[in-house]
Amino acid sequence: MDKLFKIGFLVFLFFTSELLWAQEKKFQKTFGFSYETGPMLSNGTDWGDEVKNAVDYKALDFQLGWRKISNSKFNYLYRYPTLGIGFNTTIPYYSEIGRPQALYGFMEIPFSVSGQNNRVSFGYFMQLGIGFNLKPYDPAVNPNNQYIGSKVNCYIQMGVNSTVRISERIDFQASLGLKHYSNGATKRPNAGINLFPLNMGLNVKLGDIKPIPKEAPEIEEKGLRTFWNIALYTGMKNYEIGDPAYFRGGLGLNYLFEPTYKYRFGLGLDFFWAQGMEKRFPEGDFSFKDQTSLAVVGSWEWQLTERLYVPIGLGAYLYRNELNQEITWFYERIGARYRFDNNMFAGMQIKAHKAKADFFEFTFGYTIPGKR
User: How many H-runs (helices) and E-runs (strands) does the chain carry?
Assistant: First the structure.
């Protein structure tokens, strides 16, 4: 399973490099360092409460950011965001979960352009990367930690922040967010580690001070566009503790409308296939339909740049199989994708049922532009 996450890490590095450098000439570089602390959230079980009570979470965070200040369309629409890479390390070692660390890419988006001229401003942020150095479940030596079953995991954090300008070069920043470690059910158990930290630190501007543009760029009027997305989903899923992981995949077809530069939305169909039914249930007699599921899905794409976007989906099964752990009649999807010059795209996202991971989808596909 670690190999799977190494592939995911390469995808993450590619997305981060595109976020930082694609079609961008001017940056304000910043270095941030901070301290964070907060509770670990329990899942309400006895073992979950025991692990949660044993973890007094404290961590350090380091970030190198590039604020996009070119007077371009997407920079203005996202209020001149800061993009970058960061490293997070828990300070103590916990016998239950280890010393979680993460290498991640991040994006900070202010709530307004004009508000950034005030002494106090506000915004929101997203972080996505690879978490490592965790101590996974072991039936002999670590039986209580059923939150995580692998040493290497996906790392996600989202939240809001406030920035107080101390001087032209130094800002104080405080943030509050939800931090999550999960392997996407590639190795059981995988309840997921959730933390709710308060982060406080300083951001220092490096080099020459570069202000954001005072005037908005010229943005041409947006006409309605349509697209067809054809996607192939591939991944692995571990159904029971101690059992092998099996292939999970599928196909997706979506018809999307693009009324603005920042969003696309539409409807489509998802078809999924689960390998290994005969091995998981050797006494059973299964048809092809028992190994598959079909769903109608509402899709929404959040365009971060002209090529990089966040796919978000909510699906409802037309038919499903609970033996494949499709435990609810609906599912959710969120991730990141990159669209190339030739309309091919690639990415990764997580499919879940009521926030419980089904599998990580490594996605490849093609976009067919429709009429304008």
Answer: 4, 17
- Residues in Cβ contact with 184 at an 8 Å cutoff, skipping those fewer than 6 apart: 154, 190, 235, 350, 357, 358, 359, 360
Residues 35-89 have pLDDT tens digits of: 999 999 999 999 999 999 999 999 999 999 999 888 888 889 999 999 999 999 9
With vertex at residue 130, the alpha carbon angle to CA 187 and CA 36, rounded to the nearest 5 degrees, is 115
Could you tell me which residues come within 8 angstroms of residue 154 by beta carbon, excluding any fewer than 6 positions away?
5, 8, 128, 129, 130, 131, 181, 182, 183, 184, 350, 360
Strand segments (E) across 97-197:
98-110, 120-134, 153-165, 170-182, 193-195
What is the Cα–Cα distance from 339 to 260, expressed in whole angstroms?
17
Phi and psi, residue 117, nearest 5°: -85, -10
List the alpha helices (DSSP H) in the chain. Answer: 2-21, 46-54, 73-77, 277-280
Judging by beta carbons within 10 Å of its beta carbon (0-12, 13-18, 19+), is residue 203 exposed, middle or buried?
buried
Helix (H, G, I), strand (E, B) or coil at 124: strand
Q: What is the pLDDT of residues 230-283, one digit of tens each?
A: 999 999 999 999 899 999 999 999 999 999 999 999 999 999 999 999 999 998
